Amino acid sequence: MQNSSFKLISIQEVKTQYPFLIDREGFDYFEEWEDDDFFLVADENVKFEGNFHLDIYEDDVKKRLASILNLPLKEIETKRIEGILINGDFSTSGSIINAEGDYGPYVYIAGNVNCQSMLLGGAYVEILGNVQAQEVVMTYYNHGNFKSLRCIEAPVFIVEDHNTTFAERKNTLFYYNDRANDFDSENASEYDDETDEEIISSQLRKMLENPLIETFEELQRDLELGELVLKQSNPPAKTYDYWEKRVKSNYRDLKLVPLQYKTPQLYQLALNITFHALSYVDDNFITPELCEVLVKKDGFAIREIPSEFIIKDLCFLAAQSGTLISLIPRDFYSEELILTTFRNGKHEPNITDVPSDFITDSLLVEYVKIGKGLWLDKVCKENGQEKLTILKQAIDSDVKYLDTIFGNHFSKEVVDYASSLYSNEQYKNEWNGYVQKYNAKFERLGLNN
Predict the structure, then answer these.
(1) What is the mean pLDDT of residues 402-407?
(2) What is the rounded CA–CA span in Å between residue 345 and residue 334?
(3) Which domain of life does this protein belong to (predicted)?
(4) Which of 89, 135, 177, 208 has its CB 3.0 to 4.6 Å from that of 159, i.e. a possible disulfide?
């Protein structure tokens, strides 16, 4: 992968050797570069082998840069590389890939670009010459910027919510630009209420090598890997080992696996990674026993379990494993189930998710004893219950609950009632401990004595 065309030079040197860059819109856009930071620079035409990755902040790309520059990885890791400058034409046998949508380097290419495909996200990219891609030019997400001063020529050109400007385009198969709305209506995406996703045009799907791709995000994942994606390119057949590697890397790719490779072993591999993969698993593979295993491992799995497998026992298992009460069907609610969910939850119990007909004094008392009881005021007012009565019942339960009650529901009335029960010889150590711990609150209400 070594390419002697590239070298690292400081930003101070870049400003000296290429002063015209200083006034370019994306150059040091946030004014946070240091002069001793670096650019990856080629002051000539570049012919590159393989995929050219623009995500130079990422660890795996730093390893590639170390190889390109023939430098130790430790040396690359100590340098802040803020941009890429190619002062000439750039051609690569693979794709140009900016997989990160949120951020990226400043990239300036003075000449023409030739590649398999180009995927641009969060980087700021400016190309003065023509862009010619064998398959796809795709820009996505609104954090990046792509400016092409001449022609973008590619069978497929997609602009998805991205700051993309260009002088001219030549696209023989498909063009979509949701910023400009200057594309054929048949190329428009359609919103799917069931999946809450934008489904890409059937016109584009007919051109793709994998007919299971339905969204731009799924297409993007193929482009991130440098894959050939169009039927007309006649890409090599993919094996089971290939798809196993894809699923290990991203469980969502289970959806894209051809039917002949969707084996029980592959399903289990995906489910071992996360229960979220269940939505991509064939219905015939899902059994009550599988659902129990998933829920026992993580109570949040209840959200993905098909409704026909959700029974009372499974809901209790989810509650014991840690989940949200809002994820359990209301038909299975009981005070025991609600409290089990609250006690084992990974987050602060949200009493506002409980229907009013389950809001009883006993439930609220246990809610106070379990945790902070952040919504106690709101719930009591909405359901006509007396907050102080609830707190007194919690105080009655045991002196140990004074910690959470004093911590979250401190008032003169609460202290007076607690004092009447526990400010005595029997509970002397416990009471004095709480008085000392919450001394600032006692002082603020003048209750020191």
Answers:
(1) 94
(2) 16
(3) Bacteria
(4) 177
CB under 8 Å to 431, separation ≥6 — which residues?
A: 399, 402, 419, 422, 423, 424
pLDDT of residue 447: 76
24 closest CA partner among 110, 98, 101? 110
How many whole angstroms separate alpha carbon 402 and alpha carbon 412?
Answer: 14
Give me 202's structure tokens.
Answer: 């059937």
Tokens 């609610």 appear where? 333
Q: Cβ neighbours of residue 252 under 8 Å, at least 6 residues apart?
A: 218, 221, 277, 280
Q: Which amino acid is at 59?
A: D
Separation CA 148–CA 168 (nearest Å): 9
pTM above 0.90, yes or no: no
β-pairing verdict for 163-170 and 52-53: unpaired
pLDDT in tens, 211-251: 999 999 999 999 999 999 999 999 999 999 999 999 999 99
Instruction: Give strand ranges (E) for 171-236.
Output: 174-177, 190-192, 197-199
Q: Which residues contact 211 (CB under 8 A, 6 or more apart)?
A: 205
Contacts of 268-272 with C-beta under 8 Å, sequence gap 24+, read 269/244
Q: How far is CA 214 from CA 185, 200, 277, in A?
A: 18, 6, 17
Are residues 137 and 152 in contact, defined by beta-carbon separation less than 8 angstroms?
Answer: yes
Q: How far apart are alpha carbons 96 and 93 in whole angstroms?
A: 10
Residue type for 294, please?
L
Beta strands 38-42 and 7-10 are antiparallel
Cβ atoms of 198 and 215 within 8 Å: the answer is: yes
Give the integer Cα–Cα distance in Å for 382 and 364: 13
- For residue 390, the one-letter residue type is I
Contact 254, 261 (CB under 8 A): no
Helix (H) or strand (E) holding 146, with range, is strand 145-153
Give the span between the Cα atoms of 427 and 367, in whole angstroms: 24
Per-residue b or e along 394-413, where b marks 16 or more CB atoms closer than 10 Å to that residue's CB: bbeeebebbebbbeebebee
pLDDT digits (tens, 9 = 90+) for 64-77: 999 989 999 999 99
Rounded (5°) CA angle 84-33-130 = 25
Give the largest CA-CA distance in the chain.
Answer: 89
Of the candidates 402, 393, 397, 394, which has an alpha carbon nearest to the alpha carbon of residue 436? Answer: 402
Copy the structure tokens of residue 397: 């339960």
Quote the CA–CA distance of 93 and 78 in Å, as a whole number: 30
SS3 of 109-126: ECCCEEECCEEECCCEEE
Note whether 415 and 435 are within 8 A (CB).
Answer: no
